[in-house]
Design brief:
By secondary structure, the chain is an alpha+beta fold. The chain is built from two helices and nine strands; from the N terminus they run H-E-E-E-E-H-E-E-E-E-E.
Length: about 180
């Protein structure tokens, strides 16, 4: 599992070192939120690995599913065992591209709009996604933020009927990454 993360980041680092500046993090944050009539569920993962190649717009991240933390231990157990089946599908990955990377002025502090397209793999299902977000350059660091919705059934995540009203069918995902220049 950790080997896959290292291999993914290493491959991106090699391609980036040939083509331009790269920014990486191992402590990115992804939050998901379910708002249903009966219950609000939130989980946070602060162990997200991500890399961005500024020259090409290549953007990847990898998330260990068992690293999501819930307020209630029972929710975390159900999430891992019954819904995302973390033992069978231990990670979620995104491999894509910032399509408007040329709009990002890496040497100038500011907030820039971002359009990202690529393949999100979750629960063994890979789907093309296209989302909007922002990049903020501040004192040499790059922050990436986005908020979007995922439909559980698109990723073959099923909710048993007895708790069907406790979990929303569409989950709000918030991505918040602070990436730093990689040593080259």
């Amino acid at each position: 599992m950790k080997t896959n993360i290292i291999v993914l980041l290493f491959a991106l680092m090699i391609s980036v070192s040939v083509s331009g500046q790269k920014f990486i993090t191992k402590t990115g944050h992804i939050k998901f939120f379910s708002d249903s009539p009966l219950e609000k569920i939130e989980a946070n993962n602060r162990q997200v690995n991500s890399a961005l190649d500024v020259a090409t717009g290549g953007f990847v991240f990898k998330v260990l599913m068992k690293s999501f933390e819930f307020k209630k231990a029972l929710m975390q157990e159900h999430f891992n065992e019954n819904y995302v089946e973390s033992d069978k599908y231990p990670t979620a990955t995104f491999v894509g591209k910032v399509t408007n990377i040329k709009d990002l002025i890496i040497d100038k502090d500011g907030v820039y709009n971002a359009s990202v397209e690529g393949k999100l793999t979750l629960h063994g299902v890979t789907k093309e996604i296209s989302e909007k977000g922002t990049f903020e350059i501040k004192q040499g660091k790059l922050s990436a933020r986005s908020k979007f919705n995922l439909t559980l059934s698109d990723y073959k995540i099923t909710i048993p009927g007895n708790v069907g009203n406790n979990i929303a069918k569409t989950i709000e995902i918030t991505v918040d990454l602070t990436l730093e220049k990689a040593n080259q």
